[in-house]
Amino acid sequence: MAKHLQDTTTLHNGVKMPWLGLGVFKVEEGPELVNAVKTAIVHGYRSVDTAAIYENEAGVGEGIREGMKEARIAREELFITSKVWNADLGYESTIAAYQASLDKLGLDYLDLYLIHWPVAGKYKEAWRALETLYKEGRVKAIGVSNFQIHHLEDLMKDAEIKPMVNQVEYHPRLTQKELQAYCQKHGIQLEAWSPLMQGQLLDNPVLQEIATKHGKSVAQIILRWDLQNGVVTIPKSTKAQRIVENATVFDFELTSEEMERIDSLNQNLRVGPDPDNFDF
User: Catalytic positions (predicted)?
Assistant: First the structure.
């Protein structure tokens, strides 16, 4: 179990991925974004997750450079993720999208590149492109996002390389137990987006009670639950104090009873789009 902010899980190809990272969904380009990324790196984060559709890769890149300089670390110590958007899902267009993301970020490679959504009839060609990028050594690991079991089964029928990561909406109201079991069986690391359910869980009485007992915030309890479930997580924040707080989850442990209580909050409730029914 992770004991430190820089502890990693090993993906099925041997690449090490930090258990906790910074997400930047809905953070616009500008000084706030640059500062958030820099702050995270200076405070020990080594993983940053962005996507082409967030339209903030340039600022993320700037924050990475400033953070590396201040923390005096090398690029190899960081784990940077981006994702190909739906409009670019095709063989050539996905390869071009990868290069465009690198150019915006100002990086030579990504540690992880994901297909953002399972667009029917398009994700297999995109996956072929990711396999090419991977085989050519241009990216360290490849994966998917928002894929359900049937999407993964369909993808793996024709894939040469199975995904290393599946990043999905995951929080105590959407525990995705079947999907997690499937991913575990196939050596695919599950990663959580929207782990705090966009703030909707922060006044939940069960979580508040557990938080009080541990002298922690509800956010810290949820992030700890993710980690103890073996799920990589990337909470989003732009506030320095919150970025630090979100990472202070390695100095306590939830009991199995507390884990079960949190699991039982599941309602299969999404705050994001349904991967089986989206139109973008």
Answer: 54 (proton donor)
Q: Is 248 exposed, middle or buried (0-12, 13-18, 19+ CB in 10 A)?
A: middle
Inform me whether the pLDDT recorded for 2 exceeds 90: no
Amino acid at site 5 = L
Choosing from 54, 113, 123, 182, the catalytic residue is: 54
Domain residues of the chain, as ranges? Answer: 16-263
DSSP 3-state of 45: coil
**Binding site, residues?**
116
* Ramachandran category for residue 230: left, alpha or beta (phi over 0 → left; psi -120 to 50 → alpha): left
Contacts with 168 (C-beta within 8 Å, 6 or more apart), sequence order: 145, 146, 147, 176, 179, 190, 191, 192, 193, 275
Annotated binding site for substrate: 116
182 is annotated as an active-site residue: no
d(CA 133, CA 140) in angstroms, rounded, equals 9
Supply the CATH classification number for the domain 16-263: 3.20.20.100
Residue 206 has, within 13 A of its CA and on its CB side, a CA count of 14
